[in-house]
Amino acid sequence: TTGASSDSDSSPTVESVEDNPDGGCHIYRNGYYGSSIAVVEGILEVNIIQMTSIQMTESQAENSLVDFVVTCQGSLPTDVCTVVSDPTCQVSKSVVCDPIVLTDECLLTIRRAFEEPGTYCINITLGDDTSQALASALISVNGGEST
């Protein structure tokens, strides 16, 4: 930019204003950009089809064990997470996540321990790299028996 100096000298002063203060350079490119999009099916649905209490001996009676049989539709999951909450499904009591390997169909059994009798909300989430699906159920655990 060119401007007049404010001192008594009437000669013009030249000041340089840097266009890019960080010192980098600008690159301008013209042309076309191409990309491809892969549409994946994902995990579409999860169902808890059975809940079974595991009978234990008296020496093992500190925890009640329950098996959950779970199926899903869509792509095969790579991990399963189980959240055990209070009966309102608002306050989490425990979260357990495990990797799984399924080869041809989505049918798995998940065993979880319950420390004391009561009613619980169970959220079972199956996931893979691109999707997640959830199934919920209320379960009543009565000292080694579940309904």
Automatic annotation (TrEMBL):
GO MF annotation, one: integrin binding
Spans annotated as Disordered: 1-22
GO biological process, one term: cell adhesion
InterPro entries: PKAT, PKAT_KLD
Biased composition (Low complexity): 1-11
Source superkingdom: Eukaryota
Pfam families: PKAT_KLD (PF20433)
Name of the molecule in the record: QNR71 protein
Species of the source: Setophaga kirtlandii (Kirtland's warbler)
